[in-house]
Design goal:
Elements: H1 2-9, E1 18-21, H2 24-32, E2 36-39, H3 47-57, E3 64-68, H4 77-88, E4 93-101, E5 114-117, E6 123-127, E7 146-155, H5 156-161, H6 169-174, H7 178-183, E8 187-192, H8 204-215
Parallel strand pairs: 1-2, 4-8
Antiparallel strand pairs: 3-7, 4-7, 5-6, 5-7
Catalytic activity: 3-deoxy-alpha-D-manno-oct-2-ulosonate + CTP = CMP-3-deoxy-beta-D-manno-octulosonate + diphosphate
Family: Belongs to the KdsB family.
Keywords: Nucleotidyltransferase, Transferase
């Protein structure tokens, strides 16, 4: 969490950085290194709902809210700034996020969420399965598959609406909060970035991240 917070502080578009959590142990740790913390309820079903609750508890009003997952310690500040600016420049979108190239070895990993976009840069669909899926059942080495990164920004007005929307079939089937946005007809802007995705999804990822941070002198 500390490393993710430090990376977020380097972004130029963020006015205020807070950690939203329902775990007092995480909160105590974050206060220890100087972060503002907002305690949220255990009933939040995903990060978007947690961001909504945190926003309601903050005194200041914001136009854009960014959800940076705590398990992305190598997130680039430029990506944070990129999704904020892309949302600001797309008045018909209520949500923005980022994708990068999918590695062939991650093609069938359900923890690596895939994304397809239209030719205007708006999301069409997200899936834990490989999309698009070749009828051969194999990964096409020539196709530019895209991996969703664990970061997204929302128009603050839409963030208030999101919890009021009923769960949707695709959202429930894939367990992906972004799909509720798309199923309800809202637009989501997607930027493509060149980034090595190193989220912490399983215990084995921790050692990989620590080794990479040592290589990059970030530890």
């Amino acid at each position: 969490m500390l490393r993710t917070w430090e990376r977020a502080k380097l972004a130029t578009t963020l006015d205020h950085i807070v950690v939203a959590t329902d775990d007092e142990r995480i909160a105590e740790c974050c206060r220890g290194f100087g972060s503002d913390v907002v305690m949220t309820s255990e009933s939040c079903r995903n990060g978007t709902e947690r961001c909504h609750e945190a926003l309601q508890k903050l005194d200041k009003k914001y136009d854009v809210v960014v959800n940076i997952q705590g398990d992305e310690p190598l997130i680039e500040p430029e990506i944070i700034d990129g999704i904020v600016r892309s949302l600001q420049l797309a008045p018909d979108a209520v949500f923005s996020t980022a994708v990068t190239s999918l590695k062939p070895e991650d093609a069938f990993d359900p923890n690596r969420v895939k994304c397809v976009v239209d030719n205007q840069g708006y999301a069409i669909y997200f899936s834990r399965g490989l999309i698009p899926y070749s009828k051969s059942g194999k990964v096409n080495p020539q196709f530019p598959y895209m991996l969703h990164l664990g970061i997204q920004s929302y128009d603050a007005k839409f963030l208030k609406i999101y919890p009021e929307l009923q769960p949707t079939p695709l959202q429930l089937e894939e367990d992906l909060e972004q799909l509720k946005v798309l199923e309800n007809g809202y637009k989501m802007k997607v930027i493509k970035v060149d980034h090595e995705a190193h989220g912490v999804d399983v215990p084995e990822d921790v050692e990989k991240i620590e080794n990479l941070m040592r290589e990059q002198n970030l530890s």
